[in-house]
Amino acid sequence: MEQLIINGKKLTPANVHSALSDAPPHLSAIRSFLEEWWNDENYIVVKTSGSTGMPKEIELSKKLVKASADQTCDFFDLNRNTTGLLCLPVHYIAGKLMLVRAIRSGMPLIAVEPTMTAICHLEANAHFAALIPSQVVEALSDAVGTAKLSSIPMVLIGGGPIDRETEARLAELPNACYHSYGMTETATHVALRRIGMDARYHALPGVRFEKDIDGALIIHASYLAAPVHTTDLAEIHNEQSFTWLGRTDHAVISGGVKLIPELIEKKIGHLLESRFYLRGETDHLLGQKLVLMLEGSPWSEDRIHDLQSQLHKLLNKFERPKEIRFESRFEETTSGKIRRLSG
Question: In the prediction, which pLDDT does 53 show?
């Protein structure tokens, strides 16, 4: 019989409901998922993050989810002698997979409230943790959080890109931090890269990649019923490795030139302290124009002029934003990603 050790308590199909009946919301959510995992259906229902539109529900076979969990357990050598930290909401695939990895490997879990400051308030010792970028940024914002993040030997970061400053700081930490590539449809990651050592993602065993005629990545995996066609642009080095470039649905065609906002954002990230993104907007002359969106209060004209001067030096004439706009706070998906609104 499958079981799970969570916060020192053994959970089984027979006792999970009673053991977590009066639990706080994050543990009640765990109970609900475990009841679904241990029911007689051969699938689970999962919500997508909503980064490319409204979140939707899809069905994933339990066989697929188990195969994905086993890949991670093998790669990180997760077992009953390692302790995992669950600080992600289990409404989404990343949190669910932490539970399945623990069930499959025997790894005990510490489950805490899934907040942005979860690492900063961590009191127990963990060997392995899965985080989203915003939790990492929050942890690195002070000495206590940085020390606690550094104390976790293996850190898996997924759910969105990592900015250049955060990547540089992670590379200096003594522990092993990995950036994952994957999606709900593949039951989380199919490729990993070690931060500070490699910009390329490397496929997990049984996974290979190719591109379609538009340059978007296609994922093949031995445990997938069919290839997954993505909206991710990539430079493929071989069937087992690639460099992520951006998304086809973010691409901007301006004056007949195809621009990938994510590539331009990497070039200018060091100039900006606040969150930002580039988007395309309809333009009578160019078809689309590139607009730089900054989070926060509007700047003075002098400060904007100074930024434009720096952008002029860094970017070619096609890449330069034709307009700079401000939003007091960006909209976010339920998983904490910036919702890139198009004009």
Answer: 53
User: What's the Cα-to-Cα distance from 79 to each of 95, 104, 179, 204, rounded to whole Å?
Assistant: 18, 9, 21, 19
Amino acid 254 reads S
Q: Are residues 236 and 278 in the same domain?
A: no
How many helices, marked H, and strands, marked E, lie in the chain? 9, 20
**pLDDT digit string, tens, across residues 280-315:** 998 877 888 999 999 999 999 999 999 999 999 999
Amino acid found at 58: I
Distances (CA, A) of 85 to 29, 99, 127, 275: 16, 10, 8, 27
pLDDT of 342: 67
d(CA 138, CA 158): 15
Residue 339 pLDDT grade (very low, low, confident, very high; cuts 50, 70, 90): confident
Give the domain CATH number at 276. 3.30.300.30
pTM of the model: 0.84
Is residue 335 assigned to a domain? no
Token couple for 191: 């490729």
Domain edge (last residue) among 248, 272, 307: 248
Last residue of a domain, one of 214, 248, 282: 248
Task: Give ∠ CA 152-132-258 in degrees, rounded to 5.
Answer: 135
Q: Within this chain, do residues 165 and 291 fall inside the same structural domain, yes or no?
A: no
Domain range for 272: 251-327
